[in-house]
From TrEMBL, chain A:
Protein name: ABC transporter ATP-binding protein
Ranges of residues in domain ABC transporter: 4-235
Domain of life of the native organism: Bacteria
Family named by the database record: Belongs to the ABC transporter superfamily.
Automatic annotation (TrEMBL), chain B:
Natural source organism: Paractinoplanes ferrugineus
Keywords carried by this UniProt record: Membrane, Transmembrane, Transmembrane helix
TM segment ranges: 48-66, 78-97, 128-152, 172-190, 197-220, 260-279
Keyword Transmembrane part of the UniProt annotation: yes
Name this polypeptide is given: Membrane protein
């Protein structure tokens, strides 16, 4: 099921700053990573989906609804966790999340119930009557997540949810997001500038840079065709490279290794055959799985 | 494989119940604001000021009612009660208006509000309504006590009660005018800064600084400038509106034939403040 679809989405701020340029993307339900450097246009994209900003050109649909014209319908189904500090210090988490629930249109008792539910799910059940001002950064992030969950949305938009957390807090937050996506049945868009972090928990990935779409696909599809074979021979590395290139492989030397993409099922045998024909002493042969990060680095260097 | 003593995670439950519309959201924001104005749901410290102010107003009303029932003379009538309490109301809105809006700006909670089915208009009108109600209660409840005092000690039976009610209702309307002017001006000032102390200082300053201007204008040797002097300050403006509507020239301000200008300015002032406030939050909501 497609939950977010954009067509040539463009946002230009006053003063000629282009935040999004011609972004066309279709996203299926699940946990979606939205990655890009700072200032790549991630937050702008989220704000457009919430109907907080109107796009300068192009089209956007969330659950098939246009957030520009039917803002309320979209917002009722979406929970938003902003990047910045967004909590009043002098109320308890329970009271605050209840208040946010009521502002989302829940009746009074339902808001109270859902607030303690949401706080329980993010792991703040015991501390929920304490004032937010006394919370640690990790706990504050959880309160922000709880207020986004309180009205039971179908989609969560999380802007840098791991910001300011220590490694343990990061892991806990990522595990929680993974659970929300997989066990709660809520789709999640996770914004991050750390690719390694989101690739662990996401089903699909949208990478943007300078407001333009770099790539959008399912993670398994991104990594599937990208396995490489690392070949190391004790001598004759150059000869082997030449032979493999002649055989039609795109060989990349990396130190004493030769990285050969495994683009077909027969590739493995053909590489071995090339080594055998040259009669080179084979030192090492291992199959590597590309990490998503490498996909983008090669892509980016190719762009330059 | 369930062990005894293990707490089972009952898992996530989807919400199937009703989802209310913007009106319900507005009323919950209004209630929240009204409660916050009197420090409900906040720490004991934040209850001290609003309740201290309310206690003074109530005390004055009780003394007034007592004196009147004993001696039969007013210390204040319903109008002059509102007039003489005006400084109290100013301090009240100077503390409460920043509590209602500056606090939200400061904590950055607005993006959370405006990512929900809530518009800048809803937010602004809920906050204005909450502060107007709070300021009106501050004057209206003591006025009601004065009414009770008058109604129970009247010597002309039911007719006296009706007469007293006829005095109370315009008094209430007059208090509402005070509340509207103070609420709209103070919310506008408070919405410009996230620092509560600055906002409070700014609000008091606006009311304080404009009073001497009235004094200077009213001693100029021109009848017109004397009649129009009251326009310079919100407080004399309201007194001027009262003088105009009641057709009295003996209320400490002489508006001459310019009474209607006072009425127009009061209306425009409230309206302009609310529009500016809305414009301000249109901008905030888009961030």
């Amino acid at each position: 099921m497609t939950i977010i679809a954009t067509k040539a989405l463009t946002k230009t701020y006053g003063g000629g700053v282009t935040a999004l340029a011609d972004l066309t993307v279709e996203v299926d339900a699940g946990v979606i990573g939205l990655v890009g450097a700072n200032g790549a246009g991630k937050s702008t994209f989220i704000k457009i989906m919430l109907g907080l900003l109107a796009p300068s050109a192009g089209d956007v649909r969330v659950f098939g609804i246009d957030p520009v014209t039917e803002t309320d319908k979209v917002r009722a189904r979406v929970g938003y966790m902003p990047e910045n500090d967004a909590l009043p210090p002098d109320v308890s988490a329970s009271e605050f999340v209840t208040h946010m629930g009521r502002l989302s249109g829940l009746p009074k008792t339902a808001a109270r119930e859902r607030a303690s539910e949401a706080l329980r799910h993010v792991g703040l059940y015991e501390e929920r009557y304490r004032q937010i001002g006394g919370y640690s950064t990790g706990m504050k992030q959880r309160v922000k997540l709880a207020q986004a969950l309180v009205h039971d949305p179908d989609l969560l938009l999380l802007d840098e949810p791991t910001n300011g957390l220590d490694p343990a807090g990061r892991d806990a937050m990522l595990t929680l997001i993974h659970r929300i996506g997989n066990e709660f049945g809520i789709s999640v868009v996770v914004c991050s500038h750390l690719l390694g972090e989101v690739e662990r928990i996401c089903d699909s990935l949208i990478a943007i840079e300078g407001g333009r779409l770099l790539r959008a696909d399912r993670i398994d599809r991104m990594t599937a065709a990208s396995d490489v074979l690392a070949v190391e021979v004790s001598e004759g590395t150059d000869e082997l490279a030449a032979a493999l290139r002649a055989a039609g492989f795109a060989v990349t030397p990396e130190g004493r290794l030769l990285l050969v993409p495994l683009d077909s099922d027969s590739a493995y045998d053909r590489i071995l055959q090339a080594v055998a024909e040259l009669d080179l002493p084979l030192h090492r042969l291992d199959q590597r799985r590309h990490r998503v990060a490498e996909l983008f680095t090669t892509k980016e260097t190719a762009d330059v | 494989m369930s062990d005894a003593g293990v707490i089972h995670d009952i898992g996530y439950q989807r919400y199937q119940g009703p989802r209310l519309g913007r009106r319900a959201v507005f009323s919950s924001l209004y209630q929240h604001g009204l409660r916050a104005a009197f420090g409900f749901g906040r720490s004991a410290k934040s209850k001290i000021f609003p309740w201290g102010v309310a206690a003074i107003a109530l005390l004055v009303a009780v003394i007034n009612a007592a004196v009147r029932s004993q001696t039969g003379t007013w210390l204040f009538d319903y109008y002059s009660f509102a007039d003489s309490m005006s400084w109290l109301v100013i301090f009240f809105v100077a503390i409460v208006a920043p509590e209602l809006v500056s606090r939200d700006l400061r904590s950055g909670v607005l993006p959370l509000y405006f990512s929900r089915p809530l518009r800048a208009f809803d937010y602004v009108s809920a906050k204005v309504a909450a502060l107007v109600t709070a300021a009106w209660l501050l004057l209206g409840v003591p006025q009601f006590i004065m009414f009770l005092g008058g109604a129970f000690t009247t010597k002309t039976g039911m007719k006296g009660v009706w007469h007293e009610l006829g005095l109370l209702l315009p008094g209430w309307a007059y208090s509402l005018l005070w509340a509207l002017v103070f609420a709209s001006i103070s919310l506008l000032i408070a919405s410009l800064t996230g620092k509560r102390a600055f906002a409070a200082g700014g609000i008091v300053a606006v009311f304080l600084m404009t009073t001497p201007v009235v004094g200077v204008l009213s001693v100029l040797p021109s009848d017109t400038s004397r009649h129009l002097a009251g326009l310079a300050s919100p407080m004399s403006l309201i007194a001027g509106v009262e003088a105009w509507l009641r057709g009295r020239g003996d209320l400490g301000i002489d508006v001459g034939d310019f009474g209607v200008i006072y009425g127009i300015e009061a209306f425009c002032l409230i309206f302009a403040c609310l529009l500016l406030l809305l414009a301000r939050y249109r901008k905030v909501a888009a961030l």
